[in-house]
Amino acid sequence: MATMCSIVQANDIMRSFYSVLFGGLAVITLSLGIARGAGWAWSSFLSGRMPAGIASLTAASVDAKDGLVTSVKGLTKTVRYTADEEESIISAAERSLPAGADSRVTAKAYLVKDITTDTVAAAYNAQTFMPIASLSKLVTAEVARKLIPADSRIEMTPEVIATYGNTAGFKAGETFTAADLMYPMLMVSSNDAAEAFAQYYGRSRFIAAMNQFAQSIGAYRTYFADPSGLSPLNESTATDMAVIIEWILKNDPSVIDITTVKSKTVRSHTWVNPTHFLNWSYYIGGKNGYTDEAKSTGDSLFRAGPNKDTYAIVVLGSDNRDADVIKLLAKIK
Q1: For 308-330, what is each residue's pLDDT tens digit?
Q2: pLDDT (tens digit, 9 = 90+) per residue, 248-297?
Q3: Are residues 40 and 120 in the same domain?
Q4: Residue 201 sits in the same domain as residue 314
Q5: 279 with 139, same domain?
Q6: 3-state class (DSSP) for residue 131
Q7: Which residue range forms the structural domain that includes residue 236?
Q8: Does 4 lie in the same domain as 120?
Q9: What's the angle, vertex CA 141, arms to CA 323 and CA 178, rounded to 5?
Q10: Mean of all residue pLDDT scores within the chain
Q11: 9 with 109, same domain?
């Protein structure tokens, strides 16, 4: 009888052992499956939904086969293409345009200028006077930085708030430093912020300084009637707008840097940049605009081509600004 009990106990011990063993293996297998599935889902998300060319962050590594630079920070993986991949990325972007889009650029005037070599890659009506809308704010920003100390406190007066288009969500009586006001003006194209700068300094004197600035840097065919670009009398040419953004890039690049900020919070205000090219690694910065008279306008900087030269791409009077810019990028060889 003792022997029989020993056998039963041994069988129970063996069943327990195998139960633990195979149960543990099952858990491990399931865990590995979940991890692999999560990794597959994350990779699919990155390759299928995240725009290629998101600006690189830290700990970059190079995949020599694909010509990619990848980096990881926290839970964010970024992909940055090397010069060899630029043309294929642009071609892919062009192919991704909405159905019905063709190779025709809708802009009434445009210019693609290689700033690095000081050559023009493509142009159409580049010397034609056209309203520029909020591209005016590039000059507003530059003049404000020269005339108004960064720590000056500027009040949002009722006259400022009355300006059409309160995209920054200001309230009458609020005050901001001149440095802080640059963000809503350049990120979300706040007309209020532009007017606030002008009225703080003296509106007529400020606008006169904008025109003097344009003349002083060689943008001779440019005229400003207001600081925001709401006026259709704010006119320039594609060539002049390339001159302006090139000058700012070389002499005061911090203005361009602000245009690439994705979001900025100042007290109770958070401004989110709507520019679609922010996730492209070779987008350097720029400004967009729109009014009924000007239609869509854009003055942007990119690093593109086999040598990653710096290009200014200006479109004026466009029916589809982003699509036009993508088509013009495809002209860069």
Answers
A1: 999 999 999 999 999 999 999 99
A2: 999 999 999 999 999 999 999 999 999 999 989 899 999 999 999 999 99
A3: no
A4: yes
A5: yes
A6: strand
A7: 104-329
A8: no
A9: 130
A10: 79
A11: no
- Does residue 87 lie within any of the structural domains? no
CA atoms of 318 and 61, how far apart (whole Å): 39
Q: Does pLDDT of 64 surpass 50? A: no
Chain segment 134-191, per-residue pLDDT in tens: 999 999 999 999 999 999 999 999 999 999 988 899 999 999 999 999 999 999 999 9
Q: With bands split at pLDDT 50, 70 and 90, how would you rate the model's confidence at 58? A: very low
In a domain, 62, yes or no: no
Q: How many domains does the chain have?
A: 2
Residues found in the chain: 333
CB atoms within 10 A of CB 51: 15
* 102 strand-pairing partners: none
- Do 43 and 150 belong to one domain? no
Of the candidates 135, 105, 133, 111, the one whose C-alpha atom is nearest the C-alpha of residue 124 is 111
Q: What is the DSSP string of 223-265?
A: B-SSSSS-STT-EE-HHHHHHHHHHHHHH-HHHHHHTT-SEEE
- Residue 23 forms part of a structural domain: yes
CATH number at residue 172: 3.40.710.10
**Position 214 pLDDT exceeds 90:** yes
Beta bridge partners of 81: 68
Which class for 192: exposed (0-12), middle (13-18), buried (19 or more C-beta within 10 A)?
buried
Q: Say whether both 44 and 163 belong to one domain.
A: no
Whole-prediction pTM: 0.72
Say what the pLDDT of residue 98 is.
54
Mark whether 7 and 116 lie in a shared domain: no
79 in any annotated domain: no
- Rounded to an integer, the average pLDDT of 50-67 is 31
Residues 170, 154: Cα–Cα separation, whole Å: 12
Strands (E), the chain: 61-63, 68-73, 76-81, 109-114, 119-124, 130-131, 153-155, 175-177, 235-236, 263-266, 269-272, 283-291, 295-304, 309-318
